[in-house]
Design brief:
The complex is a heterodimer of chains A (247) and B (321). Chain A has 247 residues and is an alpha/beta fold. Chain A is built from 6 helices and 15 strands. In chain A, the strands form 3 sheets. A 9-stranded mixed sheet of chain A has the order 11-10-9-12-8-1-6-7-13, sandwiched between helices. A two-stranded antiparallel sheet of chain A has the order 2-5. A two-stranded antiparallel ribbon of chain A has the order 3-4. In chain A, α2 packs across α5 (188-194) and α3 crosses α4 (127-135). Chain A is globular, with a radius of gyration of 21 Å. Chain B folds into 2 domains: 3-172, HUPs (Rossmann fold, 3-Layer(aba) Sandwich); 196-320, Rossmann fold (3-Layer(aba) Sandwich), CATH 3.40.50. Chain B has 7 helices and 17 strands. Chain B has helices at residues 16-32, 72-86, 97-110, 216-225, 233-237, 268-274, 303-320; strands at 3-7, 9-10, 13-14, 36-41, 58-62, 90-94, 113-118, 129-134, 139-145, 150-154, 169-172, 182-189, 201-205, 228-231, 258-262, 279-284, 297-300. Chain B starts with a strand and ends with a helix. The relative contact order of chain B is 0.12. The chains are: A alpha/beta (247), B alpha/beta (321). The complex binds flavin-adenine dinucleotide and adenosine monophosphate. Flavin-adenine dinucleotide binds at residues 206-208, 232-235, 248-251, 263-265, 267, 269-270, 273, 283-286, 289, 302-304 of chain B.
Chain lengths: 247, 321
């Protein structure tokens, strides 16, 4: 069995959010880059756990990104990926990225394609569903549990106000979130081994873009907190009722 | 070239966020000089007529016994066919778990650019540009949709419902329902709770509450306010509270009218999931807690003393009004 895990590069969760070039680009100065947490902690680690149960499973990673992505790809290999593909492009359009991954996925004939629930920078929540439609495959989003039974996947996903367990025959695409697995830290053996694992660089296929980012801006700063004495919590309730009209 | 709004239901009842999407779509239709229509898929228990008061002129109702479970692949086919038949050019979803599975598929199927997480009406003065939330609520992006057909998925609680006295015509629509490749083997509903993503008021607790046995502080206040409950990540990780209550960068991102944080320090990853809340109240015994910088109202004090008093004051207020 072959699993393809889609990993994207995002700024560290504590990175300062600022913009450059007339607010058209994210300011990358001093920014630490990480594997998008949903891709790493949930999709990748769950795939590694499945491989630990069944060593015949092959774990392939894919990233659509420039050469700057290689450190995060190597980290994913150090955690336990077997080999990786990088599609050499830095387009931000979801459809473009999904088309690249779908193309590679078709070539590789994967049984399972895993994505994160969303990227923490663009917050698109779109790539998984788009790949699924391009390949005409079932898509389970917001999955919190995944097991395989023969040629079926047993997936539990979050639905509004609860959970639902689905049985789907492979191939399929799953977007992963919290609950799937626990974060891991790569060990020395993994880090050493990752250096020699195959990382293939491919040029993107011809593809149109459906959207483009025009500019960014930051929310207005809060005007400052109004402090209320701990001896007078009734005053807080009055303000919430009369001033902010929230209750 | 109408605007079509997907109306999402829970157990056959239209969700509040769908009325927001309807109001939003109706405003776009007015600027485009066209009509706002709605599509409802699956049996409803609700009165579809009331969509008229949110600016919808026509409701396409697809009720087919072959639609058994919620499968994005099936829904995409049904809605995609309907869009072709209706001739809609702008399609609106509310950005919830079902939309996050359908809208991207539909984007590919219709070759329609998608903006998910929209928070304002599109600017049509120069192309079609939609403002969306990015960096987990820490910034906004203006995104231009380049295609003739357009899909927007509107963040819940970011557009005010506009109610008038219009009426809607309801038309039954036939559908060609493909069979689902997904078999639902179990459903586990958490009953009696207000779903966090849709809640107007959220009361949330952090590690400052010391242990799960003290959670009545949070739940009593939530009950008094009719609020949903949430928690910080470590609280869910150490199993004081269920995982679905975890808010933040790696949990759920919410934008209620009022967010009350009790014993939460306000780490940047926590703020990322709650900073779109309209009003934030922080109760923390440490005046240096970073959360105060993001708050509208704050009390520096011991939650164990302060919160019961707030709960009592809320009850008193509700009794009077
Ligand atoms: C990549 C990454 C992603 C993360 N994602 C998330 C996320 O999605 N959501 C999230 O919440 N966290 C997330 N975190 C964790 C985050 O950094 C913080 O560690 C976490 O939010 C702290 O939780 P807390 O405020 O409950 O606990 P603490 O930081 O321990 O704070 C407890 C607070 O309670 C106060 N307190 C103590 N006693 C009392 C009392 N009696 N009365 C009043 N106040 C009291 C203290 O002053 C303190 O401010 C993430 C971290 C990383 C690295
Ligand atoms: N450039 C990329 N390369 C590989 N995978 C990606 C890329 N962008 C997004 N993904 C995957 O798609 C998921 C959803 O991304 P998004 O739709 O952008 O929120 C992410 O969690 C990743 O698993």
């Amino acid at each position: 069995m072959k699993i393809l895990i889609c990993i994207s590069k995002t700024p560290d969760t504590t990175a300062k959010i600022a913009f450059a070039e007339n607010n058209t680009k994210f300011a990358t100065d001093g920014v630490q880059w990480i594997i998008n947490p949903y891709d790493e902690w949930y999709a990748l680690v769950r795939a590694i756990e499945l491989k630990e149960k069944d060593p015949s499973i092959e774990l392939h990673l894919i990233n659509v990104g420039s050469a700057d992505s290689e450190p995060i790809i190597r980290k994913a290999l150090a955690l336990g990926g077997d080999e990786a593909i990088r599609i050499n492009s830095d387009s931000a359009d979801s459809f473009f990225v999904a088309a690249q991954i779908a193309h590679a996925a078709k070539e590789g004939a994967y049984d399972l394609i895993l994505t994160g629930k969303e990227t923490i920078d663009y917050n698109g929540s779109s790539i998984g569903g788009m790949i699924a439609e391009i390949l005409d495959l079932p898509f389970i989003s917001h999955a919190i549990k995944l097991d395989n039974e023969g040629s079926d996947s047993i997936v539990t996903r979050e639905i509004e106000g609860g959970e639902e367990t689905n049985k789907v025959s492979m191939p399929l695409i799953i977007s992963c979130q919290k609950g799937m697995a626990e974060q891991r830290i790569p060990n020395m053996k993994g880090i050493m081994g990752a250096r020699t694992k195959p990382l293939k660089v491919l040029e993107p296929i011809e593809c149109e873009t459906l959207t483009s980012i025009v500019s960014f801006d930051l929310p207005p700063a809060k005007s400052g907190v109004k402090l209320i004495s701990p001896d007078n919590p009734e005053e807080l309730v009055r303000l919430l009722h009369e001033e902010s009209k929230s209750i | 070239m109408s605007v079509l709004i997907f109306i999402d239901q829970a157990e056959g009842i239209i969700k509040k966020s769908s009325f927001e999407a309807a109001s939003y779509g109706a405003q776009i239709a007015i600027s485009m000089g066209t009509s706002a229509e709605a599509i409802v898929v699956g049996k409803t228990q609700d009165d579809l007529n009331k969509l008229g008061s949110y600016g919808i002129t026509k409701v396409h109702y697809i009720e087919d016994t072959n639609i058994k479970n919620y499968d994005a692949q099936v829904y995409t086919k049904i809605i995609g066919d309907a869009i072709e038949a209706i001739g809609a050019t702008v399609i609106i979803f509310s950005n919830n778990t079902s939309a996050k599975a359908i809208a991207p598929r539909l984007s590919v199927r219709l070759k329609a650019g998608l903006v998910s997480g929209a928070i304002a009406l599109p600017d049509m003065s120069n192309g079609f540009v939609v403002k969306k939330s990015v960096f987990s609520g820490k910034a906004f992006a203006q995104v231009s949709i380049l295609t003739a057909k357009k899909i927007i998925s509107l963040n819940p609680n970011s557009f005010n419902i506009i109610k008038g006295d219009g009426t809607a015509e309801i038309v039954a629509m036939a559908a060609n329902v493909p069979s689902s490749k997904i078999e639902v083997t179990a459903i586990n509903k958490i009953t009696g709770e207000i779903p966090l993503g849709e809640a107007d008021i959220v009361v949330s607790g952090g590690r400052g509450l010391k242990g799960p046995e003290n959670w009545n502080l949070v739940t009593d206040l939530a009950t008094a306010l009719g609020a949903a409950t949430a928690c910080s990540r470590p609280v869910a990780d150490i199993h004081w509270r269920p995982h679905h209550e975890h808010v933040g960068q790696t949990g759920l991102a919410i934008a209620p009218n009022l967010y009350i944080a009790i014993g939460i320090s306000g780490a940047i990853q926590h703020l990322a999931g709650v900073n779109r809340s309209k009003t934030i109240v922080v109760i923390n015994k440490d005046p240096e807690a970073p959360f105060f910088k993001a708050a509208d109202y704050g009390i520096v004090g011991d939650a164990f003393e302060v919160v019961p008093k707030i709960t009592a004051a809320v009850k008193k207020l509700k009794d009077i009004s």
